Amino acid sequence: MSGPAPAGTPERWLVRRRKRRRYRALSSTLSTSRPTDTQAPRPAWRRKRRCRLVRRRRRGAKPPDAIAAVEAILGYTFADKALVEAALTHGSFHAGSRAGGAGATYERLEFLGDRAINVVVASHLYSAHPALRPGALTRLHSLNVDREKLARAAVAHGLHRFLRHETPFLGQHADDFAAEIAAYPVHSNGQVRAPKCLSDMVEALIGAVFLDSGDDNEQVWRVFRRLADPLIGPEMVGKQPMMEFNELCQGKMLQARIVKKDWAKSHTVKVVVAGETVAVATYGKNKHAARNRAVKSALDIIKARKKDSMVTLTSAPHDKDGMSVGGDHCPPKTPDLLSAMSNGCN
C-alpha cells in the first residue's frame, strides 16, 4: 500500500482532470482548423439515428380523401378547398410558416370558429327558451360550446381521423376520451378532461364554413347542429360538482377544504370536511378534473351518510331536547360531519 503523495505532488484526480482539459482543447483546435471538405464523414449508424430522431411520420389522411369525407360529415361542400385543408392541419404538421399557403394550420380558423359558434348557439337558446333567466341561459350556453362538448362531436363523427399532425399519441388520447365519456352520456361537468386539439379542430371547421359561406350564420348553425346533435337542454343540465359542494357546505355550515399539496408527488386531490378526509381522487396530471372527481365523490359520501343518519334518528329514542339517546344509534365515525348533516346527531 502506497503512502501519501509527497508534498507538492498533485492528486491523481487533479492530474486526470488536467489531461481531459488539454485533450478537449486540442480536439477543439483540430476541428476548427480542418477544412470543411476534408472533414471526416459522420458514421452511418449516427446518421441513421439522427434521421430517426428528426424525421417523424406524418399522420392523417391525404388532403383530397380527408376533404371529401369531412364534407360528407358536415353536409356542406366547400368552394375553397384550401380552407378545409387548413382546418384539418395541426400546428405540429408544418415546420414552416403558418401565415398561409402550404404552411397554413387551423389556429386562425379556430379563433374565428369559436366566435361564430358562440353567436349561433346564443341566438338559438334565446329564441328556443324565452322563459329562461340569463343565469340559466349562460349555463346552458356554456355546456353546449365548451371543450368537452366539441370534443364529443369530433369523436362521435370520427373527425380526429382526418387531422394532419405529428403528435404520436393523439389517436390514443381520443380513444381514451371516448371510453371515459361513456359513463357520462350528456356531460361530465368537468370530471373528464377533453383533448384540446379535438375541440380546436371542430371550431376551425366551423370557421372555415363561416368564411366559405360568406358569413352566413344560418349555414353555420345548420352545420354545427348536425355535428353537436343532440344539444343539451334545460332538463339535461346537472350541477357542477364544485358548485353543488359549496352550496351544501355553506347551507350546513361545514368547514371544508380541498388539499392539493401532494399534487407534485402523487397527483392526488383530497377533500377534507370537518377535519376528516372524505374523498381522494386522481386524474393523470390534470388537477382540475381530479378536483372535480374528488368533490363529486365527497358529495356522494356525504349524501349517503346524511340518509343513513336520518334513518337512525327516526328509529332511535330521543330525550326531551330532541337529542338521540345511546351511543349505538349514531355512527361512531366522524361525529362532527354527521352531526352537521343530520342536525343534531352526536
From TrEMBL:
Domain RNase III, chain residue ranges per copy: 67-214
UniProt keyword annotations, A-Z: Hydrolase
Compositional bias of kind Basic residues: 15-24
Pfam families, per the entry: Ribonuclease_3 (PF00636)
One GO process term, biological-process aspect: siRNA processing
Cellular component, GO, one term: nucleus
Disordered: annotated segments: 1-47, 314-346
Skewed-composition ranges (Polar residues): 26-39
Entry's Gene Ontology molecular function annotations: ribonuclease III activity; RNA binding
InterPro entries: RNase_III_dom (IPR000999), RNase_III_sf (IPR036389)
PANTHER family, sorted: DICER-RELATED (PTHR14950), RNASE II-LIKE 1 (PTHR14950:SF54)
Listed name of the protein: RNase III domain-containing protein
Taxonomic source organism: Triticum aestivum
